[in-house]
Design brief:
Layout lengths: L1 E2 L6 E2 L6 H8 L1 H4 L20 H5 L7 E6 L2 H12 L6 H14 L8 E4 L4 H7 L3 H13 L2 E2 L4 E3 L11 H9 L2 E3 L9 E9 L3 H12 L4 E9 L3
Parallel strand pairs: 3-9, 4-5, 4-8, 8-9
Antiparallel strand pairs: 1-2, 6-7
Helix pairs in contact: 5-7, 8-9
Bound molecules: zinc ion (2 copies).
One zinc ion (ZN) binds next to helix 3.
């Protein structure tokens, strides 16, 4: 018997109570996902790929998430990021590890890289939520976590008016790599909290591939609805 990490109710079942578990999984009955970027497509859509991926495939192999960025999952992520509830990295990391373990397309990545925060942001927030998640996923799946390898040199400026590709290129220059030999020839699992347009993970993927990573796949807590 323990308390549910999300709602605090007493529960006999693991980390989340049955009610939170079923609320968290409700979307699976409603929305199909894009088999590449993992974002949710409209009800009843039967295509494999979302319009964006059809137009141009992202550089990462695949992206998957625990669920859409709404409802309970969104509230918990906001508490985790902005209210300093560090301990939420445990249940959230557990859910993320489950996503990776359940999807055979992830294969067996050798190294996990968290999406970095710019230094100023890190000061404001005291911790990088992606790093805490990456550690938890690494611990649960027995994978190496490479911290301080992918760095964000400055905060991103709003990029309205730029096309999708220009935005990636622009964003790519805000990231840098240290000790890049760690990722050379490796299959990298990139971890972040939320994927919305996919611009950030796309930019990180380009940087990692250019530095010699063999492949990059992406796992986030929440994803966008198209
Ligand atoms: Zn609960
Ligand atoms: Zn897609």
């Amino acid at each position: 018997m323990g308390r549910c990490s999300f709602c605090g109710r007493w529960s006999y079942r693991g980390i989340l109570c049955p009610r939170c578990t079923s609320a968290l999984e409700a979307w699976k009955r409603e929305f199909p996902i894009c088999s590449l970027c993992g974002r949710l497509m409209g009800r009843g859509v039967s295509q494999q790929l979302c319009p964006q991926c059809q137009e141009e495939k992202p550089p990462f192999r695949l992206a998957r998430a625990v669920g859409p960025y709404r409802g309970m999952l969104k509230d918990v992520i906001l508490d985790f990021k902005y209210k300093g509830r560090r301990s939420l990295s445990q249940p959230l990391g557990y859910l993320l590890a489950q996503v990776v373990a359940a999807e055979p397309l992830f294969g067996k990545p050798q190294v996990i890289i968290p999406v970095p925060l710019a230094r100023q942001r890190l000061k404001e927030r005291a911790f990088n939520q992606a790093e805490l998640l990456a550690r938890e996923v690494g611990r649960l799946l027995g994978l190496k976590v490479a911290e301080g390898v992918l760095l964000k040199e400055r905060d991103t400026v709003p990029q309205a008016g730029l096309g999708r590709k220009e935005r990636w290129i622009n964003l790519k220059d805000t990231f840098a790599l240290k000790r890049a030999s760690i990722i050379e020839g490796q299959d990298v699992l990139l971890v972040d909290d939320v994927l919305t347009t996919g611009a950030t993970v796309t930019a990180c993927t380009i940087v990692l591939l250019q530095a010699g990573a063999r492949s990059v796949s992406v796992a986030t807590l929440a994803t966008g609805i198209l």
